[in-house]
Amino acid sequence: MTKPYAIGIDIGGTTTKLGLADRKGNLSHQSVVPTTGHVGLDEYINVLLGEVKQITETISIEKISGVGIGAPNGNYYTGEIVDAANLEWKGRIPIAKMLTEKLGLPVTLTNDANATAMGEMMYGAAIGKHDFIMITLGTGVGSGIVANGQLVYGHDGFAGELGHVIAVRDGRQCGCGRKGCMERYCSATGIVITAKEWLAEKRGESVLRSHDTLTAKHIHEAALAGDEMALDIFDYTAKILGQTLADAVAITSPEVIIFFGGLANAGAFLLKPVKKYMEENLLNIFQDKVELLPSALPDTDAAILGASALAW
Amino acid sequence: MTKPYAIGIDIGGTTTKLGLADRKGNLSHQSVVPTTGHVGLDEYINVLLGEVKQITETISIEKISGVGIGAPNGNYYTGEIVDAANLEWKGRIPIAKMLTEKLGLPVTLTNDANATAMGEMMYGAAIGKHDFIMITLGTGVGSGIVANGQLVYGHDGFAGELGHVIAVRDGRQCGCGRKGCMERYCSATGIVITAKEWLAEKRGESVLRSHDTLTAKHIHEAALAGDEMALDIFDYTAKILGQTLADAVAITSPEVIIFFGGLANAGAFLLKPVKKYMEENLLNIFQDKVELLPSALPDTDAAILGASALAW
What is this structure's pTM? Predict the structure, then answer.
């Protein structure tokens, strides 16, 4: 019997969000618990179990196909969260096993970006697509790659690090220790670095000069107001992203590239020039074939939905 | 019942090679026919049918699981050879359909590089591997990418163009119309271009100066003899290849990268420094995990074996 529900758990640095999804992506029984501040991992697990129990008090556990978890550094193969920089537990946390044992439900874990890709395939902009790339432009850049209808986890579960493809050889220093990673240019963090560099190096008027603490949102607002430097900054960001995506297309030949996250919401300022630069840099056999689309998942629930999609 | 044999057909620009493979990669009934010089496509197909008939006269067709074809620009999804530069038929050649109808056996088509990747997985260096990259360093650079145990064809059948990833932004002019493609540096053609550029630009003694028509083989021989410029040329080639592979690893996280083709035979001069440069450029989570291996398929039969592997 096909079970009609799946539980999604999105583990973030500050809060953990839970919800029950049906096969169309309708969420119910949503709740939020703190990720931090527990006496230990066991207490956190008990809090999660309590939340799941609240769900299974109204929906029979027989109707739930499983639990999906999206977490930073979540590894699909081992079911472990490994050395996640944003979480207070260090080392290897075998969270899938811990929850499976206590719940009696299958628990599947992966990282946030992969979970979002699954969410797009199940409920979002990639329904019916077998080959696509989902890219998250947030504080950093994450990505989930689907080929032949399956997530590309790689042999170790760590595939899909598009944000750490070298976009500019010997370019900006990245937190990963190398230079020129795409996420140092094309994330919310990256676009602010570009703006600061340009404001220091270039003359020219810009409303961006009026901010003490510049954010990606300020740059977006300035672009909306027609500020020339802000528009140029988006164009530069789009160029680097378009070039990098053209190379990724040569490798996996996706039908669609889906954009998610804060910077992706800058919409026309980013996606339109990204498309132009990607096409300019594509090998001829790939030209005019790859669609660029914004995510079709609701911003606030995307992570829970993505996590739940793992459980089908 | 599992059928014990498969027919492999390797369509090259000059000759077409056929053979019957068992599940261990033992070949029998090999034959070679010209690809060119036939009155038309139908005559060529009839020649192929005649060769297959010779096989089925000694081995019952009931024992043959199917026919696999490797061909330039062969498309897995459509079964067509499309505008192959090295073949005399232009446009779309629905070769899989034409042969299936006349043979009564399933016929599967893909391009040479993908066929070789399948051969490595079935009989070669990737037996039991589910995530790997096969890269052919010949006149050009081809590649076949396997994820989750399946070839990554992409939505259109054209995935795996690692040779056309931009290795050097605004670099050497490529035949594809763009600049800086990896194959302009890391193929037999590319290494000769490097040598010619260096001989013109640099001073320094080198036995390479004594050749009127320089080939990759000359450069390999010079390296074997300890010629310093030849060794530096290999090091430069390896650096660009290692950098490009590091980016590819970030995308698909393969367990192994397998090297095939003329330039790959330069072995230690290439693979050892490629490994070094790849490791230097890898994101930390991928370091010391990816094995680089030479192909385990016999050079002369690799293409037939690869083609046959499609039929299982």
Answer: 0.94
